[in-house]
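User: Predict the full complex structure for these chains.
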Amino acid sequence: MSNEKKVKVKIQDLYKVFGNNTAEAIELAKKNTSKDEILKKTKCAIGVNNANFEIYEGETLVVMGLSGSGKSTLLRCINRLIEPTTGSIFIDNEDITKFKNDEIIKVRRKKFGMVFQRFALFPHRTVLQNTEYGLEIQETDEKEMREKAMNALELVGLKGWENYFPEQLSGGMQQRVGLARALAIDPDILLMDEAFSALDPLIRSDMQDELLELAASVHKTIIFITHDLDEALKLGDRIVLMKDGRVVQVGTPEDILSNPANDYVEKFVENVDVIKVLTAKDVMVPAAKVFKKDGARIALRKMKEIGLPRVLVQNKDKEFVGLVKDTVALKAVETGNKDFESIIEKDVQIVNMDTPLEHILTLELDDVHPVVVLQDDNKKVAGVIVHSSIMASLAERIKGGTKEDDNS
Amino acid sequence: MIIAKILKIPIGDWIETFFEFLNRNISSFTKAFSESFNNGVDNTIDLFVGINPILLIIILSIIIFFLSSAKPNRITKANLREKYSNIKFLGHFIAWFLGKTKIMIKDRYAIKMTIGSFIGLIFCWNLGMWELTVSTIVLILIATLISILIGIPLGILAALYKKFYRIIIPILDVMQTMPAFVYLIPVIPLFRIGKLSAVLATVIFAIPPAIRLTCLGIKQLPEELIEAANAFGSTKKQKLIKVQLPLAVPTIMAGVNQTIMLSLSMVVIASMIGAGGLGKQVLWAVQNLKVGAGFEAGLGVVIIAIILDRVTQRIAGSGKNKK
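Assistant: Here is the predicted structure of the two-chain assembly.
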C-alpha cells in the first residue's frame, strides 16, 4: 500500500451499552471499571468500550477476539444493525450515526455487503435469487440484475448452480453464495462476520486463499471478524485485537507478533505456530555482495572481511547472478583465470520475501550454501538465510514466551 | 351479604346496556345486511346443489387432486419456467401445468387421497345427504375465507408490533374459551337467525389459530435471516413480502388447517342459529332420539373434516418439502 492511505471508515469514541442505565455505565467505563463490575453496578453489559481506529480504503482489516469480546457488536455498529450508544462512525467522512432510517437504508444498499457466520441464505430462494436479493430490493432492472448476479456467482466459482436451492449445497458452497450475494451489489465495504468459522478446516483454508485472491482483484475494503488468530494473521493487512469490548491493539500481523501490547495479546501470540507465521523476511540477514565486474580478487577480500567462505554476485543492475565460493575463487587467482563468470555458481536456492519459514526449513542449507531471498518485484537480493539467522530469530520469540512465564 | 350485593360489579348490566344501544341504533342496518348475505349464501348453495351431484363430485375430486399433489421439483420448475418464459402470461401456466402433470403420475399419495375423497363424497350422496353436505362445505369455506382474510393481516400486525400483540393475545384467549352460546345471544337480535349469524359465530371461534400461527410463523424465523434482509437495506415492507411471509407459509397454513377444523367443530352449534346443513340434521336427530340418522349426519361431518384436513396439511407440508 502506498503512503497516501485514504481513510474509508473511521470509528471514534464508540460505545455500545446493552441495558437501561447507559449513561452511568459509560461513566464507569471511562474510569476503567471492569466489564463485570459495571454489570454488577448498573445491570448494563458493555458491548463496545471506547473503540477508536481507522480503516483504510482497500485494506483487509481483521477484528479479532474471543467470543464475548464485542467484535460482532462492533461490526454491526458499523452498518447500524445495532445502534451505537455514543460515538461516531464516519464512512467516507460522513457520520452515519446521525443518519435517519431511510438514509441508513441507502447507505446499506450502496456501501455494505455482509457475509454471515451461518450463511443466512434465504431457503426459499434459489442460489441465483439469493444472489440477486440485494439488487432486487433496489429495484434494479431485471436484465442488469441477472447479469450482475451471474458475474458475482462466476467470481466465487458457482457458475452452473444458479437454480439449486441453498440446502442442496455443501457448507463451503453455501458460504460462496453468501459471498456472491454480498459482492453482487458491488459494495465498497465487505463486512464478514466469522464468515469461515462454520466451515471445516480444509474448506476453510481454501476459502481464505480465495478471499485473499478476491481481495487483491476486486479492491474492496474488507472488515473481517474472527476468533482465530491464525486466520487473522493470514488474511489481515492489519489486525484489531479486542478484549471485553476494548480495543487492545491495532497493528500489522508482524507488529502484533513482535510487539504484543500487553499480556493478553502475548498470551494469544504464544500459541501461534511460529513456523507458519514467520516468513523469509523475518529470518534473513543482510548479505555481502560483489559486482560481476569486480573479479575473483575483490570477491576474496570481501569474504575475508565478513568472515564467510562465500559471497553473492550481482550484475550492474544489482540483479542477483549467483555466488562464489572461497576455494574456487582462490584457485582462479592462483591459476590466473580471468573469466570470473565461469566460477560463479548459479544453482542457488532462491525464495521470496513472503515464503513461510515452514517451507524454508525443508531446504538444505549451510553457511556455504545459503538460501537467497530476492525482493518481490525485481531480482535484487534482499538478504540471505543461514542456520544461525533462523536460530537467532526463533530464540528471540522463545525469550518473549519465557518472559511471560517469569511474570506469572 | 348485602355488602356483597352492593359491591357487585354490574358487568352484566353494562353489557346489556351496550347491546341494547347497538340494537336500537344499528340493528336495522345489520338486519338488512344479514338478509342480503343470507340470500347470497343460499343462492350459492342452490347453485352447487343444482349441478348434477356425480359431476360435482368428479369436479371436486379433480380439484382435490391438484391441491394435494406435491409441488414439482423446484429445479424442474425453474427449468420449465426458463423454457416457457418467452410466452407471456401463458408461459407461467404451461410450466406449472407440465410440472404438475409430471409429478402427478408418480404421486401416489395424491392419487390415494383423490380416490378416498371421491368415495367419501359418493357415500354422502348415497345416504341422501348431498344437499346438506354441500351446504355445510359452502358455509365452512366461507367462514374459513373470512377468518383467513381477517386473521392473517392481524397475525402480521401482531408479529410486527409488540403493543398490538399484547392487546390481541388476551382477546384471542377470550374468543377461544368463552362458551359459544354466550355470544350467540347478542348475535341473534342484531343479525336474526340465519347464515350470517352462523358464520359470525364460527369465525369468532375459529379465527384465533389463524392469527396466532401467522404471528408465530413470522416471529420464529431465524434472527440471522432477518439480519441479512436488513443488512442489504430492505425496507420493512420488502422484508415482510420477500422474506418473512414466504418463510412463514408452512406455519400459516398450519393455522389455516386449524381454523378449518375448528369451523367444523362448530357446525352443530351454528345450526341452532340457522346454519342448516349436516349440523341441523344432527340437531334434529338429537331432539328426536334418532340414533341412526344422527350417526349418518355425523359421518358426513367426519368425511368433510378428513378431506379438508388432509388437503390443507398437504399444502402446508409442501412448503417444507423441497425435494
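The two ends of chain B are 70 Å apart (CA to CA).
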